[in-house]
Specification:
mainly alpha
């Protein structure tokens, strides 16, 4: 559910009118130089990209405990590049190298947080806590989106 919501967030900005986005947007923009548009987008977009991908790293680490950190980081990187490429192919946003960097940093933060927490807390307890908090936040996020933030794009 998280990955689907993440795709909905990154590709369609949580819009319900996905067909109209695909039909109406049709502008392709690509930026291959990281942080060149930082003055235009600001710190909030950069921080939101990092924060959005922290759960991705946590969930990867939770599900693939025996995998090397660098392999999981490659998964985060490839996912981010894939999403950015889809934005370009579908012409539904700006394909930006900054997003790839910040998304990957967020995933790395989640991976490292899981490993560090695993040194302090038993894996079973940590996994249950992450699952419980994740479900609560996911439900809260969806409810807020549906009931409070009725933004149409």
């Amino acid at each position: 559910m998280y990955v689907l919501t993440l795709l909905w967030l990154v590709l369609f900005k949580l819009s319900y009118a996905i067909p109209s986005i695909l039909a109406d947007y049709q502008a392709r923009s690509i930026n291959l130089i990281p942080f060149v548009t930082f003055g235009q987008t600001g710190l909030s977009e950069t921080v939101s990209n990092v924060v959005t991908f922290v759960p991705f790293g946590l969930l990867l680490a939770l599900n693939f405990k025996k995998s090397a950190l660098w392999r999981l980081l490659i998964v985060v990187f490839v996912f981010s590049v894939t999403v950015e490429t889809l934005q370009f192919v579908l012409a539904i946003g700006t394909t930006d190298a900054t997003d790839v960097v910040t998304n990957t940093l967020g995933g790395l933060a989640g991976l490292v947080l899981y490993r560090l927490a695993g040194k302090v807390v038993k894996a079973e307890i940590l996994d249950r806590c992450i699952a419980a908090v994740g479900i609560i936040l996911f439900v809260a996020f969806i409810l807020l989106r549906l009931l409070v933030f009725r933004v149409r794009y």
